[in-house]
Amino acid sequence: MNGKRNGLKRMAWQKYVFVLFVTVAIFLFGILLGSYTSTQKLQQVSDLQNDLRTQTMDTEMQYSLVQENPCAFINTTPLTNELYDLSVRLDFMENVLGPDNTQVIGMKSYYSLLELRQWLFMKQLDKTCGTNRTLVLYFYSNAKGECPECQEQGFILTWLRKNYPDVQIFSFDKNLPVTSLATLEQQYGVNETPFIVVNDRPYAGFQSKNALLLAVLDATNATMDTGTMQTALQGG
Amino acid sequence: MITFNDWLIYIVSFFGLYTALFYLFTLYENWGKTTTAGRPRRYPAVAIIVPCYNEERTVGKTIESLLALDYPQERLEIVVVDDGSTDGTYKAAAQYRKRGVALLRKENGGKHTALNLALKRTKAEFVGALDADSTVEPDALRKIISRFTGPDIMAVTPSMKIRDEKGVLRRIQSVEFTMGILLRRVFADLGSQHVTPGPFTIYRRAFFEKHGYYREAHRTEDIEVALRIQSHHYQIENATDAYVYTHGPNTFRSLYKQRLRWYYGFLSNVLDYKRLFSKEHGNLGLFILPTALLSVLLVIVSGVYVLGKIVVDTWQNIQYYAAVNFDLWKMLTPHFDAFFINTNAVVIISFASLVVGLTLFFVSRRLAQDKRPWKLSYLLFFLLYWLLFAFWWLAAGAYKLAGKDTGWNHKSEYEVSG
């Protein structure tokens, strides 16, 4: 003999549907809030880019105005920190939204142009004033499976930048649809990633910390205080 | 693009959120029922069986706690069954004969045989068991008996707590047991309890007379009995404020062995009773049992994935650090910027799930009348326990799939079930 149907077991469908509704509402709220904050952050990055564009033009304008004594700019490294700050934010947004996000790709393309402009400006300053800055170009790829060593190379370059702020690093995603970037790649024969150029000298493939320090020392000569760099090199 | 990582978080969060909200809502609906009437209308005869195997050190304490029960002595029968112990268990229990405790001795044959021996001899209306490493609160029995409010209620489960909280593992188990108190309450409200814990679940003896005694049941007889009661459409109630204290394993090895037995037993018994997965069994058949199995699957997948990711990421980071000769001083300069707080949908939804999970835990503490201050073990529970949980389930699933007998000895059966 069995017991009569256990009434407690009976499913109250309204409750199941109500809880489903609440769960879906929380999910939708999360998705909408996430999308809203991402849009806000992208806007923030976009504003930063616009500021930078204005500042770059301002610097170039000043340069044109003081044609007679352009080397008054020698001791300044205009906008380098701002550019770096922007790149860190873009990296973060790329991690959050994914490398395929069209807004991220658009902003990275624009950022690359800003970097190119900055790099050309600094090269020109060096040429006119006879200085020898260490300008590093770094070509990488975030496409899946295309450059497994790029993450580690990026880490070493970040280390270099943090420890030697005088070294200016300009990084470029090789897959961006930017024509001038393609021209630059052609100029240095960039056919693989990672690819590094230190003051016009190309280095194809992954560069260890020591190889990179040697390349920088080679290119720098006497323009930088290389004492600590040599110590780092000897240390390992 | 949504990555595998994101999909996994979405699925686990949705499932976790839905079930947690469902439990909270069910509790809210039935909140008044969480405390018992306290005193039963009558005091029926109850027999408590203490099956033991090599428990000379703890059996005395267990019997003492039964003797201290606030229940009319003439209505309470305590029967200790020594299942062929090779130590001084029999001698330790024999001391209580003069205080009315009955003592039986038999050849070792497994816990269910010890329980059945006493079950067949008693004439009490209600029967229960108490493992020889557990103790009860004096008011537990009368609170449980007061829960037998209808003839279809065949069993009433207690709330279990960890007795001796020395050691990190036991403290973590204590948190798990606190959560278990809430789950048992919710399952009872949904008519879906599928485990009647070995320690101090009280049954109507008529059920065993009508539907058979304890079975070997993959060495988890307490799961089998519960499923059998459910399969006959009887009710299992819960006396949330009737507390039983049990002994938690204090080493990873002993905890692993215990959990392997529990989870293997759960999987095996649920497969034996797969007919319960039907509309006929309402909440139990269409929600509680399926979600129990689904949660096992999700815990295993996410556990393996997260552990794998931790190992791969750690190894990768070590490689990066090695690439700069561990010269990380300037890399680690702390810098706060609200911009870098990840606020994408996955993070927000995970956070919402965490909040609901914590709410569930707060309510559990309230149900368990746990007024102790917050401890580190709670954090450890949330961070680590589910990984252990995944590991135990994976092991139990592997044994089951391989159709392998785990070769447990009879001693392991005497460790607490639940």
Topology:
The complex is a heterodimer of chains A (236) and B (418).
Chain A: H1 13-65, H2 80-97, H3 102-129, E1 135-140, H4 150-163, E2 168-173, H5 179-188, E3 195-198, E4 201-204, H6 209-220, H7 227-235
Parallel strand pairs in A: 1-2
Antiparallel strand pairs in A: 1-3, 3-4
Helix pairs in contact in A: 1-2, 1-3, 2-3, 6-7
Chain B: H1 4-29, E1 46-52, H2 59-67, E2 76-83, H3 89-94, E3 102-106, H4 111-121, E4 126-129, E5 135-136, H5 140-145, E6 153-162, H6 168-189, E7 202-204, H7 205-211, H8 221-231, E8 235-246, H9 252-272, H10 282-323, H11 345-367, H12 376-401, H13 410-413
Helix pairs in contact in B: 1-6, 1-10, 1-11, 6-11, 6-12, 9-12, 10-12
Explain what the structure shows.
The complex is a heterodimer of chains A (236) and B (418). Chain A is 61% helix and 8% strand. Chain A is α+β, with helices and mostly antiparallel strands and 236 residues long. Chain A has one domain: 3-Layer(aba) Sandwich (Glutaredoxin), CATH 3.40.30.10. In chain A, helix 6 (209-220) packs antiparallel against helix 7. Chain A starts with 12 loop residues before the first helix and ends with a helix. Chain B has one domain (1-34, 147-418). Chain B is an alpha/beta fold. Chain B is globular and about 75 Å long. Chain B has an 8-stranded mixed β-sheet with strand order 3-2-1-4-7-6-8-5, sandwiched between helices. The model of chain B has no long low-confidence stretch (mean pLDDT 90). At the A-B interface, helix 1, helix 2 and helix 4 of A face helix 1, helix 10 and helix 11 of B.
